[in-house]
Amino acid sequence: MPKKGDFLARFGAKLDIPREALPGSFGMTLSGQQELVVRGCKKILSYGKERIVLALGKTVLEIQGEALFCSAFGARCVTITGRIVSLSFGEVEK
User: Fold this and answer.
1) Statement: residue 17 has pLDDT above 90
2) What is the pTM of this model?
């Protein structure tokens, strides 16, 4: 039996809807090591100069670096600036 997410992905592709606009999806754009734009962010779980953690549906994104700063947050989109050293993914703890 096909998964619900598979159906949504196919449906979105037919309508030319960006994947990150679908429920439970996200997208990112990294510009060098200085700026990261994340679309599909539900909330900021942790915020500090060296570590920021974002909830992206069932996925957690951890950004590590130096002088990190959330320069914009709204409409499920967050922009992080600073020196980005690493990105890592995990699952939301229940």
Assistant:
1) no
2) 0.76
CATH of domain 26-91: 2.60.40.2000
Nearest to 38 by CA among 61, 64, 17: 61
Query: Alpha carbon of 92 to those of 45, 53, 57, 83: distances in Å?
Result: 10, 11, 8, 25
How does pLDDT run across 40-90, given as a tens digit for each residue? 888 999 999 999 999 988 899 999 999 999 999 988 899 999 999 999 999
- CA 75, 79, 44, 16 torsion: positive or negative? positive
How far is 52 from 44, CA to CA, in rounded Å?
8
Kindly state the helix (H) or strand (E) to which residue 61 belongs, with its residue range.
Answer: strand 59-74
